[in-house]
């Protein structure tokens, strides 16, 4: 989730970063004054682009991950896992874990989001689906943390805490809280019952890069990867908070992924209708979480850029909540909170 956020005035971390890159040696000859903002996470991490004298890396990316808040080691570990799987990720060129700096290969500045349209989408999404299958097929137990019940619940709890209470200013009644808990329990039961594979957790159009050499996609922002439900990254990709496609088009791309995954021997449900149900229920978990995260980014972190994406995330949430009997209590709660109509959609 990329968003630029820089405080005015003195920036001691940036000064520290410039000193570090200047000292990386003759092979790099990095000009610290070339350091320019590339992007920032919805976290404490920031990224800067620098010019170098290295023949293979005329530019590079420096990750600034303050050790008090961030740990670079998961990024390094997941980069190796995903790279070994045949996925394009930024190579770690130099590191200083004590200071919280990484020098990374530059995958460019062309995000999927900046290039997706009706003509480019089939090819770009086809590449993203192929890379996702590679990533999932490389799953090895014990390499990544589990996307367990506690983590799924913590994420869902962001919805009542930050979206409902803080953003909407609503205190849920005991009955509403009980209804929400019932729906959350059903969602988590579905999520945990799905086959478990490597999960990027933010496999969407802002974290996938269009590569100049065609090795699409370049994959970023994977440091929070886990082993979890097989539908999670597909939901991130085709029910993206930042770009909307008609459900018929989502289905076409999802079926193509499902067929590719089956051919690769991945444990997707052999019945597409059941697989689509899992996809939708996983999406509901993700979108309730995202509503909470976007509200928190605004109210706690002062980042208002994500508020514009709330309506699409709510649209996804309402569509799924209205489609399954077990989720209707959530739709009634949303009706009370929002006072909006449920959109039409396909039924399975």
Automatic annotation (TrEMBL):
Ranges in coiled-coil conformation: none
GO molecular function: ATP binding
SUPFAM superfamilies: Protein kinase-like (PK-like) (SSF56112)
Alphabetical UniProt keywords: ATP-binding, Nucleotide-binding
InterPro entries in the record: Aminoglycoside_PTrfase (IPR002575), Kinase-like_dom_sf (IPR011009)
Superkingdom of origin organism: Bacteria
Boundaries of every Aminoglycoside phosphotransferase domain copy: 36-265
Pfam family of the protein (one): APH
Tagged with keyword Nucleotide-binding: yes
Protein's name according to its UniProt entry: Aminoglycoside phosphotransferase domain-containing protein
């Amino acid at each position: 989730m990329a968003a630029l956020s820089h405080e005015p005035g003195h920036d001691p971390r940036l000064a520290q970063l410039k000193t570090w890159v200047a000292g990386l040696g003759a092979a790099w000859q990095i000009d610290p004054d070339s350091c320019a903002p590339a992007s920032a996470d919805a976290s404490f991490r920031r990224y800067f682009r620098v010019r170098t004298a290295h023949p293979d890396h005329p530019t590079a990316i420096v990750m600034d991950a303050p050790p008090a808040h961030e740990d670079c080691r998961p990024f390094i570990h997941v980069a190796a896992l995903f790279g070994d799987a045949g996925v394009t990720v930024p190579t770690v060129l130099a590191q200083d874990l004590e200071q919280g700096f990484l020098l990374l290969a530059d995958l460019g500045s062309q995000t999927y989001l900046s290039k997706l349209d009706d003509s480019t989408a089939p090819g770009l999404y086809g590449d993203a689906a192929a890379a996702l299958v590679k990533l999932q097929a490389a799953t090895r137990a014990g390499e990544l943390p589990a996307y367990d019940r506690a983590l799924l619940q913590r994420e869902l709890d962001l919805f009542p805490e930050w979206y409902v209470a803080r953003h909407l200013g609503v205190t849920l009644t005991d009955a509403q809280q009980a209804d929400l808990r019932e729906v959350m329990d059903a969602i988590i039961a579905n999520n945990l019952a799905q086959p478990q594979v490597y999960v990027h957790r933010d496999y969407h159009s802002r974290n996938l890069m269009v590569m100049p050499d065609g090795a699409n996609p370049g994959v970023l922002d994977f440091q929070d990867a886990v082993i979890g439900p097989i539908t999670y990254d597909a939901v991130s990709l085709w029910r993206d908070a930042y770009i909307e496609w008609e459900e018929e088009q989502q289905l076409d791309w999802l079926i193509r992924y499902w067929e590719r995954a089956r051919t690769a021997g991945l444990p997707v449900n052999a019945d597409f209708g059941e697989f689509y149900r899992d996809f939708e229920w996983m999406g509901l978990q993700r979108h309730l979480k995202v509503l909470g995260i976007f509200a928190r980014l605004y109210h706690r972190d002062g980042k208002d850029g994500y508020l514009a994406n709330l309506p699409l995330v709510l649209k996804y949430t309402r569509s799924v909540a209205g489609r399954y009997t077990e989720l209707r209590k959530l739709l009634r709660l949303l009706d009370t909170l929002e006072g909006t109509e449920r959109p039409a959609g396909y039924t399975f």
